[in-house]
Amino acid sequence: MVNKDQIIQLVNPRLNHILRVAESSLHPGQFKAFRKLTLDDFGENGLRKDLDKLFSQSHNDRKG
After folding, report:
1. How many CB atoms lie within 10 A of CB 62?
2. What does the pLDDT look like over 11-25, one tens digit per residue?
3. 5: Cα separation from own chain's centroid
4. Which residues contact 18 (CB under 8 A, 6 or more apart)?
5. Comparing C-alpha atoms, which of 58, 43, 57, 56 is closest to residue 8?
6. Does the pTM exceed 0.70?
7. Which parts of the chain fold into alpha helices (H)?
8. Are 45 and 1 in contact (CB under 8 A)?
9. What is the pLDDT of residues 42-55, one digit of tens each?
10. Cα separation of 29 and 46, whole Å?
């Protein structure tokens, strides 16, 4: 079975690549804002939170 950490391990290299491309393409101020928004979306209040809910729900579904 796949777990949250395995998904994050697959997402992180791609996220880093996206941030490197953005850094090379955007002005520093724009990149700073883009980086913050992107990390927020994929961080504790975004994807990770959604994965926690999904795996918690999946765990509860298996129990009952």
Report:
1. 7
2. 999 999 999 999 999
3. 11
4. 38
5. 43
6. yes
7. 4-25, 28-42, 47-63
8. no
9. 999 999 999 999 99
10. 23
